[in-house]
Amino acid sequence: MATWPPGTSREIHDELDSTNAEALRRARAGAACPLWVLALRQTAARGRRGRDWMMAPGNFAASLMMRPMAPPAGAALRSFVAALALDDALVAATGRPDLLALKWPNDVLLSGGKLAGILLETGGAPVGPMALVVGFGVNLAAAPDAAALEPGALAPVSLLEATGVRVSPQDFLDLLAPAFDRWERRLLTQGFGPVRDAWLGRAARLGEPVTARLPGRVIEGRFETIDVTGALVLATDAGRVTLPAADVHFTEISAPAPAHAARD
Fold first, then answer.
1. Domains and CATH numbers, the chain
2. Which terminus of the chain faces fewer neighbouring Cβ atoms within 10 Å, N or C?
3. Which residue has the higher pLDDT, 103 or 250?
């Protein structure tokens, strides 16, 4: 088990409405950071674009509250830090990097199914540095009902059902927090370049056709890379298209996610 990051606090709650909401409340109250907030049950969890996030018993829901000294664009890079940390924690729990892949902008896949999601939000007190909250949801024990998901969404999968590995939310936090700390330190000391390279080395469907959906617009193209801001770059018939935000959909699920060529 990795060592808990020095200077990082944690709170474990039996129940919360949302770990992100609680972390933002703690930020507004002036709580010291970094602070992890873990809930064993959530009653009003949410994902990107305000979508509901369903949490079965035994699944993982936690948020990290931090105050990065960076403009909002720099704070958004923590989505990639978070994805790499999740991947490292899951590899530590399972020993199966070959089954895992990262889906732009904020999901972790297990054998092609959606295992985990990440949600970034900002807030804090009226004065002082902005607080950034990085929320994590992982289907450790059970996957939500696929029938309740929006059309075109990837089928959900759980760690236990897919691999037979059982890990408690508290034990998973002990893996995730040190992994996030490692990647955060790398971002701060070396910049986004190494983080970007590592993320691309674990990316799902890199070099393959994908569909990007935006309000009132659908773009099809080959997933070429992410740029220095983390935006998605697609090669389309009309040329290169750079998308800071979009919902990415796969037309079909290929067999297991590609193995990680190198571990950083």
1. 9-200 (3.30.930.10), 209-249 (2.30.30)
2. N
3. 103
